[in-house]
Amino acid sequence: MEEERLITYYIRNEQSKTKAVSYSSFLENNISDMWSALGASVTISWRGAKSAMCLTTNCPLAMDVVKRFLLDNDEYGAEMQQRRDTLKGLFLELQAITDGDLIMKLYWKVRNYDIFVDDVPYAARSKVRCESVSVQRYDVVKCINTVTRRKSEIKSEKKNIAANLPKTKNSDPTMPPLNNCNGNNCGDIICSLSTQSPLSPTDLSQAVGAGTGTNSGKPRFSCPHYAQKMLLNLNALRLDSRFCDVEIKVGNATSVHAHRAVLSASSAYFEAMFRPELGLSEGKQKTVTLHSIRADILELLVEFIYTGQIEIEQSNVQELLAAADMLQVPEVVDGCCEYLCRELHSSNALGILRFAEAHNCRQLAEVAANFVHSNFPKVALEDELLDIPHTLLVKVIASEALRVDSEYQVFNAALRWIRHDVVLRRQYVFEILSHVRIALVPVGLIDQAIAECRDVSLKIALRSVRKDLTSRRGQLVPLRVCPRVCAKKSIYVIGGSRREQSAGWTPTDWIFESVIKYDIFRREWIESAPMEIGRILPGVAALGGKIYVIGGERGSQILANGEVYDTQNNNWEPMAPMNVPRCEFGLCTLGGTLYAMGGWIGEDIGGSIECYDPMKNAWRMVGDLPEPKFSMGVVSFEGLIYIVGGCNTHSRYLTDLISYNPVTNEWTKLARMQTARCQMGVAILDRHLYVVGGNSSQQEVLRTVERYSFDEDKWSMVSPMTVRRSSPAVAAADGLLYVAGGDQPCEINFYRAQITIASFECYDPITDQWKVCPDLPTSRSEAGAVVV
């Protein structure tokens, strides 16, 4: 039958086309839900109900729904009399055709909308959308207009649906027609309901528009700029002292006029002050006096309350935060905290940390503490350290998150704080030193501190600590020998080659993809994940906890690509290649970026400088060297890049030391080395630049070490290494200088090719002595080294 095919189509759509359910079973399962829903929000499916009930000739429950609706709405009063009269007339027609859709629409029309019944067929269509979705209110007028415009389209869609349904041979003679006019456009309300399709969600959203609300069933208009305009008008009234009902004074300063309601709406402090039920005297006074706050700060806060804007600067941020915290204006507190976070520096981090803790600004305190821990070597040299209380000092130096190159930096910071006021602070000596890993501080540095101490009591205390340390008793301070979590470091030796001793002139070479790291605390070598590409003479640098290995040579090919090693996940990832391939070039980090310069570029010696941005994963050319060179040493220190030694285009060995300022693009010549050299190792330790080994202009493999003072612009010789080395891997950590591998002359025949060595040693600048360390697992040369 045609009607049953139609209802099956509707129900199939209603249940997401998963299963077709007959109209009779659907009605049986849902009519009770419709009944119970009349006293609450309707969440049942109205489409399925319409499809079933429009074709039902005998439905007592549906009739009871209408009767109950007509009888239970006396609370609407005389205003609903016309609507009830109309419903009574429709009820007679429903005896012939039970239109469940009409019943629900009439109910919700009278319940939620204050318009005439004639609008019900159109307005109510926008009311319920789908099964188990709560009813929402929409703009009735727009819905009516939209449905009217689409009336002809809906009829066409209805015909297309009926035409596409499969025809059945059997029909139920008891089923009535869809309406009383057999499809003709008679204008009857029931006819209209049965011949129109419901709006789709897209059509409905277009009909409703963006300017309606859904709180009370009536359309609402929204003005997005009204609140801002009202604030501006209120502020204008305040500035003109119009309608102001409170005067706020700060001492003898100028008064600030305001409105109690506005202040109370923005500040819990003022809201409590002006609440009459609390019985505070300020709630009845026209003039209120505030203490412990400056007049200009109060004016700024009141202006913010009225405008939402405030000027935060270095001169007022601390007092502004304190006042906003007192007056309970959290938005200003947050703004001040953000400002202080941006202004964090080694010279003010401890003060900001104290200030944040005093005002319970937890997020600011956490950011400041992380900054202090991450930059403790610099923070410890600032004068601000000398003025903090001993409780904060203990809290800082006790943290496992302290990032230091050596525990001596913590020891020295503690002594510096004590010496600032030794009379009052020597009582805290053992308490403070108990949080220093004293067992990791070289005994020679402790002896030096004792010798420089002028206070007798402090000197005796330090001698006691030293004696307790050497005896390994740990009675005065704990002898903790494990480094801090964030202070644990490893030396990574990456890539390189191995050249074995050979009876002939041509040695056998191996190029390494392998990476090994030296655990400084455990004094052992550990294998790490290998690189994708083995390379010799690469550029190696550490940045942001990751290791960058770039360029180099493999066989006869000079490389431009690079790889990034994640020390946490122990894996390698590719990175953007340099603009030109480079070998025997210089690489360093500065300001969160990498700088690559010089080196062999194919058959030519390069003089260009390019910069890598890790955030963009891109290289760009930034300048040129004063002259092309290769095999030089490159480091960065305090915002400048230093280039030492190497060879130029005439293969001349250099003693030059020059500095480069990337900001101004300026070059400066500095003191020259005593020995011209290339293929050496370089590293920075304790404000000194160390140049280790290399080849001299006489083609001699060197074991000498030169040290440059950045403060004095002066070179000096230190103790030589135990063995000769060229192309060694050099790194500095924990106050020591480490040198691994390299090439040395063949012992059998000096004129044969050099061979690689596995020797590993470290230099102590305090004692000016070299100490032998565990050898490399495999001899290697022309490798890169970095500390992470």
UniProtKB/TrEMBL annotation:
The BTB domain, residue ranges: 244-314
Gene3D superfamilies: 1.25.40.420, Kelch-type beta propeller, Potassium Channel Kv1.1, Chain A
Record's keyword annotation contains Cell wall biogenesis/degradation: no
Entry GO MF terms: actin binding
InterPro entries with a match to the protein in the record: BACK (IPR011705), BTB/POZ_dom (IPR000210), Gal_Oxase/kelch_b-propeller (IPR011043), Kelch-typ_b-propeller (IPR015915), Kelch_1 (IPR006652), SKP1/BTB/POZ_sf (IPR011333)
Protein keywords: Actin-binding, Kelch repeat, Repeat
PROSITE patterns according to UniProt: BTB
Database matches in Pfam families: BACK, BTB, Kelch_1, Kelch_KLHDC2_KLHL20_DRC7
Listed PANTHER family: ACTIN-BINDING PROTEIN IPP, KELCH PROTEIN
Protein name: BTB domain-containing protein
Biological source species: Anopheles minimus
